[in-house]
Amino acid sequence: MNRQVRVLGVPMDLGADRRGVDMGPSAIRYGGLAEQIESAGIDCVDGGDIHVPRPEERDPDAGSPTPGRAKFFRETKEVCEDVATAVDATVGEGGFPLVLGGDHSIAVGTLAGAARDDEDLGVVWFDAHGDFNTPETTPSGNIHGMSLAAVLGRGPFADHEWAHTPAVSEENVVIVGLRDVDEGERRLIRESEATAFTMSDIDARSAPEVVAEALEIATDGTDGIHVSLDMDWLDPTEAPGVGTPVRGGVSYREAHTAMEYVAEHHKRLRSMEVVEVNPILDQHNKTAELACELVASAFGKRVL
């Protein structure tokens, strides 16, 4: 990568019930993010944090089109609009936006900003969860489980420009590593044109083969790609400090290999985010430090 990386923190925990992911950006920075990026030969600057209101000071149903079914809808909109503006400015200046979460609802803002020039974007979504719920299907009302559906304009999100990103087409969206899917979103994923690879697919075919196909789908006919890395994609033995851990994820080596494949598409890579690091649940900042390593691999760092 020959672009300067601009780090943008989004200490967001409005999209989930479990507190702690708001400290994720600080934990990742403390884990050596800048040093890891610079060790890959890439210039890195820190753009600071986007302001996020405290949930204790807000009514989760105020301003929501579906009270009780999309918590902190208004606040999520405000934050994601600010994220989109910062990401758009970074891309417009020729930089590369690396957005640190926070919960996965911030992806709505990242993608909106990365696609503001109306170029078509593919998406590779590394996650244990589909994030394909809508307010009609959600069992929790948490928007971090609706972020990908929102980007694709599903459900009531189709009527909200801050969420729906028309430059992202379902046929260029790939979810990698699924292993915990709600019943309602399972149906939506099956009915969609998005591609979903479960952990069973990775077990049967190998991580390199699945990730290679995912990148091929995401880059087919698009102008660039966005990579969304939820750290719960990894097995909790590797990444214990995440918002919603699920047993049976990818290994340390499989995750690095996947990011190395991402690095091979660096000319097409438009933006990236790392989300759901929860220092409260972590062990000696292990998950945040691993996130830093994986980012470096995605930017081209190698053993030799």
User: What is the strand tally?
Assistant: 8
Number of helices: 10
Mean pLDDT: 96
Q: What is the string of SSEs from the N terminus onward?
A: EHHEHEHEHEHEHHEHEH
Major sheet description: 8 strands, parallel
Binned, the helix content reads: 25-40%
Total individual domains: 1
Topology:
Elements: E1 5-10, H1 24-30, H2 33-39, E2 44-49, H3 73-92, E3 96-101, H4 107-114, E4 121-126, H5 147-151, E5 168-178, H6 183-191, E6 195-198, H7 199-205, H8 207-219, E7 224-230, H9 252-263, E8 269-275, H10 286-298
Parallel strand pairs: 1-2, 1-3, 3-8, 4-5, 4-7, 5-6, 7-8
Concise overview:
The chain has 304 residues and is α/β, with parallel strands linked by helices. Helix content is 33%, strand content 17%.
Structure description:
The chain has helices at 24-30, 33-39, 73-92, 107-114, 147-151, 183-191, 199-205, 207-219, 252-263, 286-298, and strands at residues 5-10, 44-49, 96-101, 121-126, 168-178, 195-198, 224-230, 269-275. By secondary structure, it is α/β, with parallel strands linked by helices. The protein has a single domain, classed as Ureohydrolase domain (Arginase, Chain A, 3-Layer(aba) Sandwich). An eight-stranded parallel sheet has the order 2-1-3-8-7-4-5-6, with helices on both faces. Strand 4, helix 5 (147-151) and strand 5 (168-178) form a beta-alpha-beta unit. Helix 3 (73-92) runs parallel beside helix 4 (107-114), helix 7 packs across helix 8 (207-219) and helix 9 (252-263) packs parallel to helix 10 (286-298). The protein is globular, with a radius of gyration of 17 Å. Pathway: Nitrogen metabolism; urea cycle; L-ornithine and urea from L-arginine: step 1/1. Residues 48-61 have a biased composition (Basic and acidic residues).
